[in-house]
Write a structure and sequence with these properties.
The structure is a single chain. With about 270 residues, this protein is an alpha/beta fold. It is built from 13 helices and 8 strands. The chain has helices spanning about 5-10, 15-20, 25-30, 45-55, 75-85, 100-105, 120-125, 170-175, 175-180, 190-200, 210-225, 235-245, 255-270; strands spanning about 35-40, 60-65, 90, 110-115, 160-165, 185-190, 225-230, 250-255. It has an 8-stranded parallel β-sheet. Strand 1, helix 4 and strand 2 (about 60-65) form a beta-alpha-beta unit. The longest helix has 16 residues, at about 210-225.
Length: about 270
């Protein structure tokens, strides 16, 4: 046998996360309970990349419509692709407007991340867009994925999707305790790049102002029974964040994971 044949015939051992199974609903329940979950951002605009990440065993994949290369038309396909492997699809909307939140919810997103939040009042206004009247102002329709194309009208009575509020502006940080106390807010999420810039310490995650901000967000989340999340560039950084008290743990993005893998090959073989 040639070396290539040997490699081809080597059985692939299934990864533990895949063995755990579940679906988007159970993933959301785990996040709400404060259990540690692992995911990544998806910004390449590739549904296939999202499927691969879900197949690898991530708990969730977050489609980034604020900075990524995809658009709202990708969300429904992402939900189906990730859901086939028991992973949840979360979406960072480009803005917290009613129509932006409503469209990704109709497409089946299990949760929505709200960027550039500046106040508790802005969060309260945005939360209206997650619920149908009379509690909110989400438009009601049944010919979409969120209600299985009209086959599951009971979904109209289900609890609203996961709400992830980004703490990345000075306004949000200044009111983080008020934001954490708002019913319906589920995760306080630090955008480290934006927050470091807002604090006047760009990219310096070891600065005293940044570390103090991290501690404040963790405490606010803990005091109000919410989960805390932060984006990490590497697994080592994410492990450290978990020790600090973060449970919602994305590592990198589809693009950075691909770059890291390619650079690892080059550094080893070049």
């Amino acid at each position: 046998m040639s070396g290539q044949e040997d490699l081809t015939m080597t059985p692939v051992q299934p990864m533990t996360p895949v063995q755990r199974g579940g679906d988007a609903t159970s993933v959301v329940a785990r996040i709400l309970s404060g259990e540690r979950t692992i995911g990544t951002f998806a910004g390449l605009g590739s549904t296939t990349a999202i499927e691969v990440l879900a197949a690898a065993g991530l708990d969730w994949v977050l489609v980034d419509l604020e900075h990524g290369g995809g658009d709202e038309s990708q969300v429904g396909d992402a939900v189906a692709a990730a859901g086939a492997y028991g992973a949840a699809t979360l979406v960072r909307v480009e803005s917290a407007e009613r129509i932006r939140i409503g469209r990704v919810l109709d497409a089946g997103a299990a949760g929505v991340m709200l960027p550039r939040i500046a106040s508790a009042e802005q969060v309260e206004e945005s939360l209206k867009h997650f619920s149908y009247p009379p509690l909110g102002d989400r438009g009601v329709a049944t010919y979409n994925r969120s209600v299985r194309w009209g086959l599951d009208k009971a979904a109209l009575e289900a609890d609203p999707a996961l709400v992830i509020v980004q703490i990345e502006t000075l306004g949000a940080l200044d009111q983080v305790e008020r934001i954490a106390a708002i019913p319906g807010v589920d995760v306080l999420f630090i955008g480290p790049l934006d927050l470091s810039y807002a604090l006047g310490t760009p990219l310096d995650f070891s600065s005293e102002p940044f570390k103090a901000a991290v501690d404040r967000v963790i405490k606010a989340a803990k005091d109000h029974g919410k989960s805390a999340g932060i984006l990490s560039a590497t697994t080592d950084i994410a492990a450290g964040r978990a020790e600090e008290g973060f449970t919602f743990l994305p590592v990198g993005s589809d693009a950075t994971l691909l770059v890291d893998a390619a650079r690892g090959i080059i550094s080893t073989l070049a």
